[in-house]
Specification:
The protein is mainly alpha-helical and 411 residues long. It contains 19 helices and 4 strands. A hairpin with a 3-residue loop joins strand 3 and strand 4.
């Protein structure tokens, strides 16, 4: 049985998120014991830390060798170089994070960065909605979602990265040559800022658009390596960067920071078994290794399957989910990558089965809603639920798309 009224489905999604937003505000103001401030990282006690830390680590113009940032400077150099204008305005080199919060000029810099990020984010989504002829109503749950609030509080490049992803998906098939190259440029910038959006480049391989592929490759090389020359140590910093990246990926893969991923769920499940039922020591690490291999095999299969599907919703769902779950860890703000999946669902002319529509609706509501369920005052159960539901939605769609694809091939 098919659902033919996507407008009704959209209304359910919008009103559900609005209700969750109102309930969240009520609990925040009138029942503070529910820890609704946990919609932000660490209840907002680590305000804008990603922005300020990047600025502080970059201030001596040798970010990968700066003792303040050892173990944490895991972004490609463009992410640091782009903050140089703020470094010229404020002496971040001699500030602690706490001093940044108390410095009016530093806070103004963070405010400017957030405003620019939000403008790009809003404009890119408006372009997306216009391109796919969607109701602007769909923007409401996205703009008031917990994911956006969380990302704004972090002051992270993720908002800009997501915006460039949205620009890419909006314009990559444009009839206008300039818009197509704009889309390709946006994809490269997003990939250099956060690396894993590069998965979307698979679209160009599927289209066999070799001119664009060569353009992206050359621009990617330039934006990846040229910014190293803005550091005092230049290319000599590359080995340190690679060591930092390796350490960071290994360490943060199992930390309880909010994130998307199967391995860390399995790791902490193993830890619980070790504690609760005296399971053999090391079972958590075994679960971690097995789940790390398993999820990457699943992601590779999703990429391969994306070559066989024609429906744009399925194609981008498979690629974006692979980009989200393939890394050792994807921080919670990477959930912004999933917004195009929600938008593209409503852009499809064909209808979906009732069960698929209901599962999509559950996934979307859980992903976007704002109410925080917190245990012991710090452990955010909501974000665990978001990760589990997103994984289940990914696996369901992977099976569903496989059945649809191979049944058609069999016929």
């Amino acid at each position: 049985m098919k659902i033919t009224n996507k407008k009704q489905l959209l209304n359910v999604l919008v009103y559900s998120i609005l209700i969750s937003y109102i309930i969240h505000l009520f609990l925040l103001f009138f029942v503070p014991s529910t820890h609704q401030w946990n919609i932000f990282f660490a209840d907002g006690k680590d305000l804008l830390a990603d922005f300020f830390n990047i600025a502080r680590f970059s201030a001596n113009k040798d970010v990968y060798l700066n003792p303040k940032g050892l173990g944490y400077t895991c972004y490609l150099p463009l992410s640091y170089m782009l903050l140089y204008p703020f470094i010229w305005l404020v002496d971040f080199n001699n500030m602690t994070l706490q001093e940044c919060w108390l410095n009016p000029q530093a806070m103004i810099c963070a405010f400017i960065f957030i405003v620019i990020s939000i403008i790009l984010f809003v404009h890119s989504l408006c372009c997306f909605v216009k391109k796919y002829n969607l109701s602007k109503l769909i923007l409401i749950p996205l703009f008031i979602s917990n994911l956006l609030f969380f990302s704004v509080e972090r002051g992270n490049w993720i908002i800009v990265t997501a915006a460039f992803m949205y620009y890419f998906i909006a314009f990559y098939e444009s009839d206008n040559k300039k818009e197509r190259y704009f889309a390709a440029t946006c994809l490269v910038i997003a990939s250099v800022l956060k690396v894993y959006p590069v998965f979307l480049g698979i679209i160009y391989i599927q289209k066999k658009d070799f001119k664009i592929i060569v353009y992206c490759f050359i621009l990617g090389i330039i934006l990846t390596f040229l910014p190293f020359l803005t550091f005092k140590s230049g290319f000599r910093a590359i080995p340190t960067f690679l060591e930092t990246l390796k350490w960071n990926s290994k360490t943060y893969a199992v930390e309880l920071n909010p994130k998307f991923g199967l391995p860390y769920l399995c790791y902490w499940f193993g830890k619980a078994l070790e504690k609760l039922i005296s399971a053999p020591d090391g079972i958590s690490n075994l679960f971690l290794r097995i789940s790390s291999i398993l999820i990457r095999v699943i992601c590779v299969y999703a990429i391969i399957l994306s070559f066989k599907v024609r429906k744009i919703f399925y194609k981008f769902l498979l690629i974006i989910m692979a980009a989200l779950y393939f890394p050792a860890h994807s921080e919670y703000y990477c959930g912004l990558y999933l917004f195009p999946i929600i938008l593209l669902f409503f852009s499809e002319e064909e209808n979906f089965s009732r069960i698929e529509s209901v599962i999509f609706l559950i996934f979307s509501i859980v992903l976007l809603q704002n109410i925080q369920i917190v245990y012991a005052g710090w452990f955010n159960i909501t974000r665990i639920i978001v990760d589990v539901v997103s994984l289940m939605f990914f696996i369901y769609e992977l099976i569903n798309i496989s059945i649809i694809t191979f049944l058609k091939e069999g016929n």
